[in-house]
Amino acid sequence: DTEVTQTPKHLVMGMTNKKSLKCEQHMGHRAMYWYKQKAKKPPELMFVYSYEKLSINESVPSRFSPECPNSSLLNLHLHALQPEDSALYLCASSPLGAFGNSPLHFGNGTRLTVT
Amino acid sequence: SQQGEEDPQALSIQEGENATMNCSYKTSINNLQWYRQNSGRGLVHLILIRSNEREKHSGRLRVTLDTSKKSSSLLITASRAADTASYFCATDPNSGNTPLVFGKGTRLSVIA
Which of A99, B11, B67, B98 is 20 to 30 Å apart from B27, CA to CA? Predict the structure, then answer.
């Protein structure tokens, strides 16, 4: 089992809904990441938090809003999504600051379907 | 933009055979990492090889890195059905605070 926990595992939401994805790690890692992955594609980076500060936003639409309440938690708030936003959303963490030359630890993702 | 390119895109082998996947990249790197992803699950880190290393082993895995050719290979020996997964290389570019760049991946099927 992964040490990065993501909830929920599955989420179905309408285009007018507001929902949140949650990610938690207790490994003391200082960087946390959100990735989006479509079927048979590699993960695409969305956001990076390093020492609880947003350090990278890969030009993600504002309907996705990240939040890092503390060093163990990472949320992704969703609002007014489109069907093309349906994907597997992966959270990851790494021990040092963002991309500190160390491997990423991934959660098992939230499978999001937008109807 | 994606830097790593794996080939083949898909590979099907019999249990017990060796599987070799290749990764090419475009710019200089600090390190190259390989990850495995089982269907519908998260990625699992397999091995990291630094730019000054040429070969690394971990159990049945062997990774090589040729920085002059900007390429890496992942060899899985004596494959098992449980090795069926997608395998991604990811490069850590040697250009400041730059994110890992994932390749397109190789889908490996090991038939029992």
Answer: B11
